[in-house]
Design brief:
- The protein has 425 residues and is α+β, with helices and mostly antiparallel strands.
- The protein is built from 13 helices and 18 strands.
- It folds into 2 domains: 99 residues, Serine-tRNA synthetase, tRNA binding domain (Helix Hairpins); 307 residues, Bira Bifunctional Protein, Domain 2 (BirA Bifunctional Protein, domain 2, 2-Layer Sandwich), CATH 3.30.930.10.
- The protein is 40% helix and 21% strand.
- A hairpin with a 4-residue loop joins β12 and β13.
- α3 runs antiparallel to α4 and α7 packs across α12.
Length: 425
């Protein structure tokens, strides 16, 4: 969430920045009026409370002197009624301010390219050369069904569209990838492993910026009369680990490697990528989360990007890195890199991970602060998150890039110790 004081004092700059997201943010100017009304209401309330206190003291004095207190009591009653009315109005104004800020996205970092959509993303790196095949390429759906490792028909019977049953070596491949990714990030790069709950509360969804804007995309649960949600990414529960906490400077940076099964309704993607496991309602994901000091967050962003890239480098799969344009970047993020893996079955690069810096946007919503020393004032941390990677899409990349003419799939060398086999056939 943006800081109200900063927004009202830098309104032109804030609107100019946000409108790079290809939206109209002129309504934010209402915050100047609302903030002025809020300040006046607070002053009026405090003035009346002070006067009521004085009158209450006067009533006590009159009673001791056995004087008539009828007029004073009536005045105190009137002041109480006025204070209540002003408090109610103040709550209305503060609720309106909160609503505007909660639905306002993060400011964009100066290095983000200005553009309308993903067509304006900026390519910054290409790693590896797509393999040249001497035989007709199969996509992961054809490969998976012929090998009997992906079962879409029975998944549809069990649940519905956009679900899959991993079978045999397909199940082992997904399990192997999860363990491989967790091992790399924890053992090589020092991230602390986390397996959080798959169910979160509304406050958790608000804190990371999923709510209120993307409430329609979530899976809601009613349990014992309370509302819960299936988390859409490990980012949500892992960021909220430190909600309402004050960390010490010595603790930062905190680095977590978090595994979860994620759930998304994909409400806004009807008809898109419905074939196979590219875009599903349920998928596994290994996520990297960092809590940093503000001055360190962009250095840590580059480190996180390199850690995510290393998974594809070890798997020896071609990929590229792009910076998302201002029209494509996520609601809560100031800057995002996308890692896009080469998929021969589609003859194109597709997103397999996003590496983002939210700066202090999520920390303000979640009230996550730190103190540099015991005597220092509290400051908001910066939060970063990145895919390390999306497991299902990594499966697609392996199946399609490592396919053989006979329909078998060679296992990448680094995965053989996990898979206990060199080929799926």
């Amino acid at each position: 969430m943006l800081d109200l004081k900063f927004v009202t004092e830098n309104m032109d700059e804030v609107i100019e920045n946000l409108e790079r997201r290809q939206g109209d943010f002129s309504h934010l100017r209402n915050l100047i009026t609302l903030q002025a009304v809020r300040k006046q209401l607070i002053l009026d309330v405090e003035t009346r409370k002070a006067k009521r206190n004085e009158q209450s003291k006067q009533i006590g004095l009159f009673k001791r002197e056995q004087k008539d207190t009828t007029a004073l009591l009536a005045e105190v009653q009137n002041l109480g009624d006025e204070i209540k009315a002003l408090d109610d109005k103040l709550k209305e104004v503060e609720t309106e301010i909160e609503h505007i800020l909660a639905n306002t996205p993060n400011l964009i970092h100066e290095t983000v390219p200005v553009g309308r959509d993903d067509q304006d993303n900026l390519e910054v790196k290409v790693v590896g050369k797509p393999r040249e095949f001497s035989f007709p390429i199969k996509d992961h759906v054809e490969l998976g069904e012929k090998l009997g490792i992906l079962d879409f028909e029975r998944a549809a019977k069990l649940t519905g569209a956009r679900f899959v049953v991993d079978k045999g070596l397909g199940a082992r491949l997904e399990r192997a990838l999860i363990q491989f990714m967790m091992d790399v990030h924890s053992l090589e790069y020092g991230y602390e492993e986390i397996i959080p709950p798959f169910i979160v509360n509304e406050k958790s969804m608000f804190s990371t910026g999923q709510f209120p804007k993307f409430k329609a995309d979530s899976f809601r649960l009613d349990l014992d009369g309370q509302e819960y949600y299936l988390n859409p990414t490990a980012e949500v529960p892992t960021i909220n680990l430190h909600r309402d906490e004050i960390l010490t400077g010595e603790q930062l940076p905190i680095n977590y490697c978090s595994f979860t099964t994620a759930f998304r309704s994909e409400a806004g993607s009807a008809g898109k990528d419905t074939r196979g496991i590219l875009r599903q309602h349920q998928f596994n994901k290994v996520e990297l989360i960092k809590f940093t000091k503000p001055e360190d967050s962009y250095v840590e962003l580059e480190k996180m990007l390199s850690h995510s890239e290393s998974i594809l480098e070890k798997l020896e799969i071609p990929y590229r890195v792009v910076i998302l344009s201002s029209g494509d970047i996520g609601f809560s993020m100031a800057k995002t890199y996308d890692i896009e893996v080469w998929l021969p079955g589609q003859n194109r690069y597709r997103e397999i991970g996003s590496i983002s810096n939210a700066e202090d946007y999520q920390a303000r919503r979640a009230n996550i602060r730190f103190k540099r020393t015991k005597e220092s004032k509290t400051e908001y941390v910066h939060t970063l998150n990145g895919s390390g990677l999306a497991v299902g899409r990594t499966m697609i990349a392996i199946m399609e890039n490592y396919q053989n003419e006979d329909g078998s799939i060679t296992i990448p060398k680094v995965l053989v110790p996990y898979m206990k086999t060199e080929v799926i056939k």
